[in-house]
Amino acid sequence: MTANFFSQSRPIAFAGTDSRDPLAFRYYDKDRMVMGKRMEDHLRFSVAYWHSFTWPGGDPFGGETFNRPWMHGGDALGLAKQKAEVAFDMFRLLDVPFFAFHDVDVAPEGETLQQSIDNLKAITDIFEEKMANDRVRLLWGTANLFSHRRYMAGAATNPDPDVFAYACGQVKAALDATHRLNGENYVCWGGREGYETLLNTDMKQEMDQLGRFLSMLVDYKHKIGFAGPILIEPKPKEPTKHQYDFDVATVFGFLQKYDLLADVKMNIEQNHAILAGHSFDHEVKLAYARDLFGSLDINRGDDLLGWDTDQFAMDVKEITLVFHEMLQHGGFTTGGLNFDAKIRRQSIDPDDLLIAHVASMDVCARGLLAAEQMLADGALSQPLADRYAGWQDGEAKAMLAGDRTLETIADRALGLDPQPRSGRQEYLEGVVNRYV
């Protein structure tokens, strides 16, 4: 039975920093004003349906540890309805404004594509009814185009055009469900859109297929009037050796080539940034620099492991630096902080799901508050402005604007003797540590 799955019935509340209750917020006060907006409106938390309610607790060397009551039985659609009851109860207890899902997280796959679509429609009916009575909204929906064996060689990039067509049908249904539920975004995660060996791979063919696939998705989005952006979630590796959505820079080049920059933004994840050899704030900064920032999957990886561990975000400093960048650009529009994170397979108590979210929500709130204070003090922004102050000079502006030729600049350089200046890295690292 799924009734009373969690130990408490009342929503988790803000209790202040003196609280030692793991099921109370110490920093996340949703109505607190931060730079002119409520904290909840800055953070826009979202619960990920898949890790919280679908993942059974397995790893590459062991199977299920959670034994959730909706994971076993004969009536797959009935179990999906039980899962929805627990999911919406958790949304209520955490008092989050959003959730997110893959199609197969919420509804079982049928023996045919039509059966799968019918199952998704049935669960969408339930979601629509629950959302009419609850405050939770859909941050984004997506289609799982990587788990089923038909997608072992990719979905949009598959060498078999019938698999490509099947993926089109599945994505159309997922976007229809997202649109019906007034989702604010639609995410494309190319879990197997890459290669395992170049010996059997035509890269140009596969990338052209992927470009066409996304172009058709954008066209359909406009056709049905879906207002939110399409989001691509970059990931460098795992499960395939090399994926075509490696990082923000790679995706930017891809979108530029296939003329998709106007409609597609980025859904960035810390764990994927690390696997690509970057920091989380690097990917966020680059997305803003290329006008591609959309949303964030909030989690963390294990620095000692080279795969996607999807742990709950607990690093205040890392989150602070991300919010320091975001607040300078106004923060989220349609995006949010989606908890693409899973509790550890030894965390088998139902309340561990709540505790993990509460702890990470507090970390995000602390990071937001630290970033707010850093910006108010000009702790990083003023040293940065000072470092590039020379580019505010009239002659420097003329060089950058294209009002000077290489020859004229070279002639001017004959009378210059520029001297290096300290980058002050250690000083700035110390500054950050004062706030976190």
Structure description:
The structure is a single chain. Strands 3-4-5-6-8-10-11-12 form an 8-stranded parallel barrel, surrounded by 4 helices. Strands 1-2 form a two-stranded antiparallel sheet. With 436 residues, the protein is an alpha/beta fold. The chain folds into 2 domains: 33-377, Divalent-metal-dependent TIM barrel enzymes (TIM Barrel, Alpha-Beta Barrel), CATH 3.20.20; 383-435, no CATH class. α3 packs parallel to α5 (113-133), α6 packs parallel to α7 (203-224) and α10 runs parallel beside α11. The chain has helices spanning 39-43, 49-54, 76-94, 103-106, 113-133, 161-180, 203-224, 248-257, 270-275, 280-289, 316-328, 350-377, 381-387, 394-401, 406-413, 425-435; strands spanning 33-34, 37-38, 45-48, 98-102, 137-142, 185-188, 194-195, 230-232, 242-243, 264-269, 293-297, 337-339.
Which structural class best describes the helix and strand composition?
alpha/beta
Order of helices and strands: EEHEHHEHHEHEEHEEHEHHEHEHHHHH
Poorly predicted ranges: none
Oligomer: single chain
Number of helices: 16
As for the CATH topology of the largest domain, it is: TIM Barrel
**Shape annotation:** globular
Binding site for Mg(2+) 1: 233, 269, 297, 340
Family: Belongs to the xylose isomerase family.
Binding site for Mg(2+) 2: 269, 272, 308, 310
Cofactor: Mg(2+)
